[in-house]
Amino acid sequence: MEEIASHVGELGALLNACVHDGASVNFVLPHTQSDSEAFWIRKVIPHARDGGLAVLVARQNGRIAGSVQLDHDTPPNQVHRAEVRKLLVHPDFRRRGIGKALMTEAERLASDLGRSLITLDTRTGDKAEPLYQSLGYTVAGVIPGYCRDPFEDRLDATTIMYKVL
Ligand SMILES: CC(C)(COP(=O)(O)OP(=O)(O)OC[C@H]1O[C@@H](n2cnc3c(N)ncnc32)[C@H](O)[C@@H]1OP(=O)(O)O)[C@@H](O)C(=O)NCCC(=O)NCCS
Fold it and tell me: What is the torsional sign of CA 59, 63, 67, 73?
């Protein structure tokens, strides 16, 4: 955990680059490096310190190239489930298998934590959808008008997916 806290600048740069590249990951423009760092400081680190959120990081030549979060802070009737959040690969490092490797590691961790069901959502039609499908995720359904596009005043659909481990 202290490791994440000491890499807030780099993790912020990862999120900021993804948002400015058009990723639908909760943020809209204008968005700054400082907004990205605030996300890690306020939303991620406290949750990880509480023990309900695991953060996995991928490095390339010493630089943070990607990250994914596994939220296992589920209610008492869903202790078999975990939620994958914020799969991010820096635009400089895409299509090298990092996203897939992060997901594989998140699944391994979920399994180690005794979780047998993974759920996630992703903007319908985004690059992540074929990635999740290639890993065996099933589409549960699509919710129209779920989230605003980061650049344009337009609402996009989200696809809810799941995988039984
Ligand atoms: C989605 C994302 C994580 C993929 O990361 P990545 O490291 O480039 O993915 P990988 O190299 O592991 O690709 C794995 C598979 O995903 C699919 N895929 C990934 N990028 C793709 C693209 N641009 N177009 C089509 N398919 C794509 C392919 O099936 C690919 O396998 P292949 O390269 O053998 O064809 C990355 O594009 C990203 O960070 N996007 C912005 C953030 C985001 O939308 N995250 C998802 C939030 S739910």
Answer: positive
